Amino acid sequence: MRDSEYTEHITSRRNPIVQDIKRLFEDKGRRDEKGEFACEGAKLYREALAAGVRVTCALMTREFLERGGVQKGCRAVTAPDDILKYVSTQKGAADVAFVCAKPAEGGLPLSGARHIVLDGVQDPGNVGTVIRTANALSIGSVILTGECADPYNPKSVRASMGAVFRQKFCHMSLTELKTHHESGMRIIGASPGEGSLDICKADLTHSAVAIGSEGGGLSGGVLSLCDEMIAIQIAPECESLNAAVAAAIIMWEMSRRGLR
């Protein structure tokens, strides 16, 4: 493809494009300010294009440019391996590092009958894994509340395996979550505490199931909105499950029952 705005071959780490991509990888504030996030690797690049995500800039090797082409309107810039290794968040250099525009979150409709709420889940790998699993199991939305990790953190993006480009997710304050609850959205909390109903016996129809951090569990604010509590039965010597694993089991249970 030759629809790109190919402009130059970069050889310096000080080049503004190189510095901007590196900052987008490292700095959430920068991602929020620009409304963009950075990704790397040929697989994620293909996933982004397939999902119709707007790629604004791509830094790539000349070999990758010749092999794969770029999206129309994208500014494609080539660079040697050492530059790509410099911006990379991994040990080895990828063939391409690219910048995507964040989709607008405002007014995101909570379509469908199944939602998962992450309450203060701070590990970016867990957030990305939940997004990936939600996409695989046709969950309507992943709702992030509290101090959750940024879904556009490079670790989250990698863990999502491209689902970050397809799955609906949104940030909600406790006030916004309360508004949806008052409008009829049933909220179920996942907690191994006494009084929680076995997940196999729970009715998860038209519900949002909330999962807290491994260390702190659900926050008091989210707990106050829960209509019911459920638990995943595990061996008594085990204290808890990883947040992403617990979310996967719950989403599978919702999906297995054919809820829509």
What does this structure look like?
This protein is of the alpha/beta class. The chain folds into two domains: 16-101, 2-Layer Sandwich (60s Ribosomal Protein L30, Chain: A); 114-256, SPOUT methyltransferase, trefoil knot domain (Alpha/beta knot), CATH 3.40.1280. It is built from ten helices and eleven strands. The chain has helices at residues 16-26, 28-34, 42-50, 62-68, 81-87, 124-136, 154-160, 174-182, 220-223, 243-256; strands at residues 36-40, 55-60, 75-78, 96-101, 114-119, 141-145, 169-171, 186-190, 197-198, 207-212, 228-231. Strands 7-6-5-10-8-11-9 form a seven-stranded parallel β-sheet, with helices on both faces. The chain has a four-stranded mixed β-sheet with strand order 1-4-2-3, with helices on both faces. Helix 6 (124-136) links the parallel strand 5 (114-119) and strand 6 (141-145). Helix 6 runs parallel beside helix 7. The protein is elongated and about 65 Å long. The mean pLDDT is 90.
Name the CATH homologous superfamily of the largest domain.
Answer: SPOUT methyltransferase, trefoil knot domain
Low-confidence stretches: none
User: Which class of secondary structure composition applies to the elements?
Assistant: alpha/beta
Shape: elongated
CATH class of the largest domain: Alpha Beta
Provide the number of structural domains.
Answer: 2
Strand-residue proportion: 15-25%
Total helices: the number is 10
Radius of gyration: 20 Å
Sheet with the most strands?
A: 7 strands, parallel
Distance between the termini: 40 Å
Number of strands: 11
> What's the rounded overall pLDDT mean?
90
- Along the chain, the helix and strand elements come as HHEHEHEHEEHEHEHEEEHEH
Give the spatial strand order of the biggest sheet: 7-6-5-10-8-11-9
The helix content is 25-40%
